[in-house]
Amino acid sequence: xxxxxxxxxxxxxxxxxxxxxxxxxxxxxxxxxxxxxxxxxxxxxxxxxxxxxxxxxxxxxxxxxxxxxxxxxxxxxxxxxxxxxxxxxxxxxxxxxxxxxxxxxxxxxxxxxxxxxxxxxxxxxxxxxxxxxxxxxxxxxxxxxxxxxxxxxxxxxxxxxxxxxxxxxxxxxxxxxxxxxxxxxxxxxxxxxxxxxxxxxxxxxxxxxxxxxxxxxxxxxxxxxxxxxxxxxxxxxxxxxxxxxxxxxxxxxxxxxxxxxxxxxxxxxxxxxxxxxxxxxxxxxxxxxxxxxxxxxxxxxxxxxxxxxxxxxxxxxxxxxxxxxxxxxxxxxxxxxxxxxxxxxxxxxxxxxxxxxxxxxxxxxxxxxxxxxxxxxxxxxxxxxxxxxxxxxxxxxxxxxxxxxxxxxxxxxxxxxxxxxxxxxxxxxxxxxxxxxxxxxxxxxxxxxxxxxxxxxxxxxxxxxxxxxxxxxxxxxxxxxxxxxxxxxxxxxxxxxxxxxxxxxxxxxxxxxxxxxxxxxxxxxxxxxxxxxxxxxxxxxxxxxxxxxxxxxxxxxxxxxxxxxxxxxxxxxxxxxxxxxxxxxxxxxxxxxxxxxxxxxxxxxxxxxxxxxxxxxxxxxxxxxxxxxxxxxxxxxxxxxxxxxxxxxxxxxxxxxxxxxxxxxxxxxx
Length: 670
Ligand code: C2E
Ligand code: CA
Ligand code: CA
Description:
- The chain is of the alpha/beta class.
- It folds into 3 domains: about 1-185, 2-Layer Sandwich (Beta-Lactamase), CATH 3.30.450; about 240-390, Alpha-Beta Plaits, CATH 3.30.70.270; about 405-650, Alpha-Beta Barrel (TIM Barrel).
- The chain has an 8-stranded mixed beta barrel, surrounded by 5 helices. A 5-stranded antiparallel β-sheet has the order 2-1-5-4-3.
- A hairpin with a 3-residue loop joins strand 14 (about 435-445) and strand 15 (about 450).
- Helix 11 (about 395-415) crosses helix 12 and helix 19 (about 580-590) crosses helix 20.
- The two termini are about 90 Å apart.
- The relative contact order is 0.05.
- One calcium ion binds near residues 437, 528 and 558.
């Protein structure tokens, strides 16, 4: 309703204005008309006052009047009166003869004129008002009336005889009304003009208003489009610098509130200028669009890919936990942009240099953040292009090391740079051998021996743990079967398995295959899964582990105590061994709290039917304490270090005959 009112109110106002204008015009017209009629009446009244009425009494209003001398006198007067103005047409006298019978007494026309009205001639247009004049009515005007001579208005004034008080005659004047009408039009001109002007102006205003509304609607509808244009790069459709600044601001305040981390990657294409110069701008544009498309496809929905202009892009990672996240994205981008891009039928390849800056590590505000990433990008360019750099030099060093380890691992796998070392596990009850753990070693041709702690995490991150773990499993099983066949040893070989290996479908099948190929009985293989892996991969109750233990493969829970699982829950795994993490063993003698933990771990494990192995036993005191606590097995430098197969086999007879003896355990290099 309000909307309708607002829409039509101006038109209504104009309508009212027009109506008022018309009313005003009509009013002006009627006022002018009345004024002119009054003027004519005044003229006739003046005539009536100056007229010689004595002669009139002699007339009868009959044809016979014409011969009376009074008639001639009267006619002369009437003629003289008519001559006063060229607008006067007739001046005449009328009398009432009988009921409603009005007759001419005399007129201003000479006899013989076609308009002459002889005395006694009936007045054709006698109206009731005219008749009324004879019985005391006021003077009146009649017309305008149109006849063959023109348009006329009649002004009629009665003359009352002073003696008798009767109306003696009515004096009439016919005036040309054309002049009159002209005057009326002139009078109407101003209000009519004003109304027309009003209509014109308001019409124009309404039109303007309608136009403005339309324009406003158009503007409104294109507001989104404008926003789009203002916040997006017109070439690629990616967010532009302005929108990026906005998002960075949001991400920063969110990260600040949640005490979380975020990262930006600053990208600059390496050979873009070449493409632009040699193939032209159109190809350059097509290339940028393709790069934009690939970048967008690489990152998650929540990540922002923006173009700063030229060949510079920025990627904003709002959900960011680990340095590796940014590293992975950077590596994916480098790999993706290394693939050739076809533009205009030509295959071109550009590289990219990437700078990575993190919040809160590198900067606290968005300007500093971007600048940091920009500097890191230049550092990446300087260090040979097609690579990435962290803003932080320490991280750069770490990332470089990871990268070279990763490359080294690939080569190491191909060149067979890995060997297995073996570390025995002994029974505390009788000192005999109850198992042997296979531990991988890497002999790098330049770096020498590389610790598992340095390369296993990289292998896990890069996925290389899968082929490496596969080799380890096969190698450990074939060694164990060799010893088994020689009759040297019939205890299980313990192989560490990482989460990524377990996540791959068909891991159990691969284990069965290795057992088949090597001929090792399943009960001589024990897989060590860390507590964290078990929890992470929700392995409890998994069908895959079920199949493995059905086959007879044993399971051990490794590094127990480092995670946050309940032993009762882990029990459902069907594991046979629990390995107490060596950090507890290390602290246990001095630290009462660690000792209490170990005691309760062993109590629980026994209650659940698990054999307990303490790892990292380095001293006799630890060993004795473990014995007192009722620990089943021990593994550690105190008994024997991990050693190459040859050393292991050399010492095997001693261990089988006499059990382990610390004194007889020369420190072989681990
Ligand atoms: P882990 O499974 O807990 O292996 C036991 C680690 O304790 C081995 O370190 C071993 O050398 C060390 N150790 C044994 N006795 C003592 C001792 O008395 N004192 C001390 N301080 N350490 C002792 P290593 O060989 O350096 O391996 C480190 C970790 O790397 C392993 O921890 C395991 O998580 C991983 N790893 C090693 N070999 C493999 C493998 O073949 N596959 C997988 N997936 N991971 C492996
Ligand atoms: Ca282990
Ligand atoms: Ca362990």
